[in-house]
Amino acid sequence: MRQQRLFTLIAISLPILLLLLTEAALKLANFGHTYPVFVEADFSEDYLMPNPELIKRFFHQGAVVPNVSPDTFYFKREKPSETIRIVVMGGSTAAGFPYGRFGSPAGLLTHQIRAVYPFLNVEIIPVAMASINSYALRDMAKEIIDISPDAVLIYTGHNEYLGVMGVGSAFANKGSHTTNLLFLALKELRLFQLLQTLINQPVDAHNISDGRTTMAAMAKEQRIPYQSDIYHKGITQFRNNLSNTLSQFSNEEIPVFIGNLVANERDQKPFASTDPASFPGILPLLRNRMATQAKLDNIQAWQNAQPYSANVAYAKGSLLIEEGKHEDALVALQQATDYDELRFRAPSAFNTIINQATANNDVHLVDIVSQFRHQATQGIIGSDLMLEHLHPTLRGYFVIANSYLGALVDKGILPAPSYPMEKSAPFRWQQVPLTPVDRLVAEYKIVQLTSDYPFAVPSKPVPPLGDESPYHTMAQERLDGKTWLAQQQSLLSLYQQQKEWKKAAQVAALLFEALPTNKQAAEAAAMLYLRAKEHRLAWYYARQALTFNPTSESIALALAQAQYRSEDETAAMQTLEELLIHHPDNQQAQRYLNNLKASQ
To answer: Per the UniProt record, which residue ranges are transmembrane (predicted)?
Structure first.
């Protein structure tokens, strides 16, 4: 009996041992890959950065992947004790498409915080990128926790159906929610990667990596009807993944701020719709000289025949706007988005799920929808805040960043500012750090996007930017491959030659934010902002410059001046006193200090 048990144990153990040995052998042979969320920076082992190959984490070995990655952001491996660390997660809107890092919610939030809190050290680390959805957030959460964030900001949902691993996606969909989760659990095993390599056939790489056609390539199940099985699978997928992600953060007592989702309701007609046979189409109906009420009567008949027609609902909403019935119009336009069978925009059910998720004490709703409606014409979100179907204009991105900033203050992650947030919003809008080159590149990317499926069928050629101005030339150079860093240096020189001190300061500040060990950029930003009379921003960058050279007389004097001009005499006196400890013979510092003390 004992021998039989031993034989059974050996019989069970041998296959397991063989698998373990095979796994070890594959690792020793350097087969396969691991794609962590963060990797070591190329200039210092003390810094980390989001992995530029992160998207490969969600694809099988050897698969063709979309050409997307998170923005490069360097941060210290060991979190400094006085630093507030915030991580931003989500898809292309969270990543700031088409403006990039410094026009994204993370970039705009960073710049606002610099102006409002020049005395704080705050990191906003973006791990957002195009094409990903709640599966990616679920999978990355543990590694986000490992870098000890003080808060996590989430904006996700629009990629749920057609994004990577989405229920209707051509990218990395494994067949069901269960098999997708199994893939995420096994993907790091080299034996699993080997099996994938042997089993999976190569995918056609034609155009998949082309940024212009990524959106077109994403749609596998191009039509997902409202209330269909696959529609409900997407809702279940989103609810389950979001709940898991939020639970991971809540278990570590990390507060999460999740924004509800906005999209273009007024000015983006549905991409795909099943219509009644007699429906003439949106434009023919709207242009028809028939009385509006007669058109609405016809629409009711069409809706009776085909209740989930996106085009009929959109036409109804457009007509109700003409009639001045804006609340009824909003209902119809939201239905049009829900019924749109090409699901590049999240259905309204997702905002319901997001609202329900905030019942947890560590999860806070950021009501972006209300902020957009407050600024949108007649409370209906359209092209005044949206570039196309779901990516905001720069003003729209500012509204998103401002919404998160207000929530961070309300929940105590950031201290209450010395003046009301709403009063400082116009000032902060003026500080948006995008250059004319950045804006032209963004405009071109939108033209590219909307010249292809599903906006244009067949796709339309996109002309080059031309050379109308030096900025157009520089934007075309960027599109042709010139690096952002090299171009910023050229812009900095150009603005200084033109004596555009504020613009020069913004460029220097961007260079420092991109390269946080660049002490020359920090000092240049401080001095240029001081010259531009942007004293709070001068305060922040002078303080950063002083960390590289704590005994610098010129930087300390600039810092004291910025603090004084920002109406913080106490901080200015403290800076001058510290300067005099290192340089007791500095008569200018002593004179300033005496004057400040005399005015107390």
So the answer is: none
